[in-house]
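Retro notes
What went well: the complex prediction finally ran end to end.
Inputs used:
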Amino acid sequence: MPAITLKKISTKFCLKEIDLEIKEGELLVLLGPTGAGKTTLLNVIAGLVEYEGEVYFGEEKVDLLPPEKRQIGYVFQELYLFPHLDVYHNIAFGLKARGFSPAEIPGRISRVMELLNIGHLRSRYPRNLSGGEKQRVALARVLAIEPRILLLDEPLSNLDYSLAKLLRLEIKELQRRLSLTTLYVTHNFSEARELADRIAVIVEGELGQVGAPEEIFLRPGAKIQGFIPPPNLLTVDRYEAIGPGLARAHCGKLVLLVPWEGGDSLREIAIMPYDISLSIYPPPAPGINKYKGRIIKTSPGRYTIQCQVEVEGHLLTVEVPCLTAEEQRLEVGSPVWINFNFRKLKTLTGVY
Amino acid sequence: MGIILGCSNLAYKSLAPLFSILYPIPALGWLPLLMLWLGLSEALPVTLIFICSFFPLLYNTIAGIRSVNPKYIQTARVLGAPPWLILHHVIIPLALPYIFTGLRLEAGMAWRTVVAAEMIAIPTGIGALLINAESLIRVDIIFVCLFILSLMSFGGERIFLWLEHKLTGAWK
């Protein structure tokens, strides 16, 4: 029995007949460009917007239930911690609202504060909290009420890279520990890949594709290729480990240094078009993962140009900003140097 | 009244036209009518203060209620709060800064209106004393009256400032 079932969900301006099932205890990431309808879908599940279609939590149809009765936890993108309440009372608010007894509330708050390591922030007001602290308090506030479903709307988008990475790991760990059915909205594909059990890609209000992260990454459907371009795939003929976390992979005439932790056989290497650097100028030494090629075809876009580049017998797609292409006068036939970004090379071991 | 009109579109649309007609009448314009209805009793200056303060406070309260970000109300709903809890624990506290602005603005204006009424019609109070002192050319009494008036206005405003700080200072 799925934890959440959405049947033919449509909204006035945004969503178009979305059918989706979310499993119990799953972390499903809703991925898509800005304006795709990801947040609107969360709002439908929360009961905050009018919609057509049906929403089920397990076997229970919840369309007629107001938001306060749906027992969900929702962390909005801007968090909306109550500015007039300190951290303790922000967390207590939901518990009081749901009728927990006054004797029970302090214990619940203490437990969730300990879980998120925010006990020292008890008496502080939101205006005196850092970005990461606010994020933790917002999470504590929803976890305290023990929701049956957790909705997170781009909760880390306002944080710097390193803090967002740390909190991402914490969220993943918490979600696993609590086995909480979670929907997480993001427009960042790397974040989605890191977090998701499954990814649902929404484009222009429609559900484009649902699947495991690797499936989305390696086989993006036609509907979502405008948002998630297919990667370049190189078949590995042979490879050898050359050090801890490092391997040399032979893909025809291409020899690449790749990150490799060992384990199953290395079959393919994938790299996204925007993770390959392209230039008419020779790159600085050393010459690792750098090759000379020739542009075979160009496809201009609004902000970037897709270049088909022939390199050592392989045809690769490389994405170049329009400004760079203009400055370097890239055109069909131009000899170019390409550089495979080592950290972005994805080693694949099986069939997906 | 401000809370009701701020929260309910129906109440606002029903009553706002009435208040729009009454608001432009200066408080002193009500004096002849109040003197007929209430006589020269203690009720007269009190009623005058009420009329003078009512409309600015009403509109500030409405503005305060409506200034509360709807997302806070949505957040409270999703956390499970019923409407009365949202009103009591979210909307009214967040509207307090606006309400106190109205109170502080009107504290001084109310005193000035009463003194003006005492100068022209009510035979007791600081205003009446001012007029008497003027007719007796007692400049010393005039200055004392002005000083007391200033002190009262200042004191009234400071009381509201203190109260505002007590209720909202920690988080505003």
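What we learned: Residues 161-178 of chain A form the longest helix (18 residues).
What to try next: split runs per interface for comparison.
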